[in-house]
Amino acid sequence: MKRIFLIALLFLSFFNLSAQQICFSDSVVISLITCSPGEEVYSKFGHTAIRINDSKKGIDLVFNYGIFSFETENFYYKFIKGETDYQLGIYDTRYFLPEYAERNSVVWEQTLNLTPAEKKNLIDLLLKNYEPQNRTYRYNFIFDNCATRPRDKIFAALKGYVRFQPVTYQKTFRQWVGMYVGTDTWLKFGIDLVFGIEADRTANISESMFLPETLMYEFQTAQIHSPNGQIRKLVADKKILVNKNNTKEQQDSWVFKPVSISLFLLVLGIILTIWDIKERKRHFKLFDTIILFVTGVGGVIVFYLMFFSVHPLVKSNLNLLWLNPLNLFVALFIWIKPMRVTLFFYQILNILLLLGALFAFALSAQTFNLAVFPIIVLLLMRGSSWFALTKRRIYKNKKYN
Fold first, then answer.
1. Which of 98, 175, 344, 373 is the most buried (most CB within 10 A)?
2. Minimal CA–CA distance to 114: which of 106, 100, 126?
3. Contact 194, 305 (CB under 8 A)
4. Does the pLDDT value for residue 254 go beyond 90?
């Protein structure tokens, strides 16, 4: 994508000067371009663009709403907050296709069945959108992205409305995303942590088109209903522009999967807890410090996204019941003896929150990642044993004072 951005910049100055003078013939063909997912995180869900090809005029352009740069000031902070700006870029199709061939993606082209008036409307809308004051937009992963923008421009250009075929499948936003990031991957684990209750809402047909391939499938069977009663297919033809090489995908070892790691930590925690209670009569602080620190950092991220980010689907997140931001402080306080009594009462609150997380998990109040369950049990076990051992010490101190 960074290379696409740089290539696009080479053409921006040219089209800034000549966009208003571009004139297309009656034989112009407009199509929807869909690219299959790539390996990079930002390309996991594929891509959509609009192609305008006029062989008579020798013009073959791609209108791409997916232009962004990692070099943007405070890019990662803005991305986390949900304030990432994308741009509409225009560049020659011959510079667009090789990029996706290099990343081994399939590129499909669906020729749109538009009237001459609708083609003109769409071209005018795209060129208007490309004007310097209009080309930048606030990116929203679900509701306003590189797939929904082309769709909305196509719909706006039609003389009539589009009717889609009734769906035989229904998926939540979390399930749609899960189709592209895997079931037991670290990316899926991270997404499940930051997604809240809203992500478990079933997406309707329009909402599911935030995914380029879903948009392509829906377009393929859609119909345009004109005001005069005529009905025609939205897509006149479909073909593959770039094919994918058959390469064997490398499978990650099960040892390093989220579920495997969380189960390992639980087993280790069980062994240490038994040792603490039966042999040492005190807690193994280093292990708890690491667990508390990691969950505390996770809690800070979830808390920030819930209350400060404008990203969709991250509000009302029940993962905050076990990803407690206060654990960051507790990771330090467990080494300070005068804080023992304070942490004793904190553990009471923390145990109640962890039990609440287990109930939420059991009742499916929100879909939790499977790897979360062993971690919640681990935190509950360590918190309960810490509570019991500290209570015993406090009682002994009172008894002999």
1. 373
2. 126
3. yes
4. no
pLDDT tens digits, one per residue of 182-203: 888 999 999 999 999 999 999 9
More confident residue, 154 or 394: 154
Q: Give the Cα separation of 149 and 144 in Å (integer).
A: 6
Which residues are CB-neighbours of 135 under 8 A, at least 6 positions away?
A: 87, 88, 89, 129
Pair (142, 268) in one structural domain: no
Q: Residue 299 domain-assigned?
A: yes
> Nearest 5 degrees, angle CA 266-CA 303-CA 339?
65
Position 237, amino acid: D
Going by C-alpha positions, the residue among 331, 330, 357, 335 that lies closest to residue 346 is 330
Q: Which among 21, 16, 136 is positioned nearest to 87, based on CA atoms?
A: 136
Provide DSSP, 61-107: EEEEEEE--TTSTTHHHHHHHT--EEEEEEEEHHHHHHHHHHTT--E
Q: Mean pLDDT, to the nearest integer, of 66-90?
A: 80
Supply the mean pLDDT for the chain: 87
Burial state string for 17-34 with b = 16 or more CB within 10 A and e = fewer than 16: eebeeeebeeebbbbbbb
Radius of gyration of the chain (CA): 27
What's the domain range around 392?
A: 254-400
Find the DSSP H helices in 168-284: 173-181, 186-194, 205-208, 212-221, 258-275
Tell me, yes or no, whether 12 and 69 share the same domain: yes
Distance of CA 396 to the CA centre of its chain: 52
Tell me, yes or no, whether 179 and 87 share the same domain: yes
Query: What is the domain count for the chain?
Result: 2
pLDDT of residue 11: 46
> Across residues 249-259, what is the average pLDDT?
77
Q: What percentage of the chain carries pLDDT values higher than 70?
A: 88
Cα 142 from Cα 278, distance rounded (Å): 52
Q: Are 318 and 360 in contact (CB under 8 A)?
A: yes
Residue 222, φ and ψ in degrees, nearest 5: -75, 155
Backbone dihedral region for residue 69 (phi beyond 0: left; psi -120 to 50: alpha; all else: beta): beta
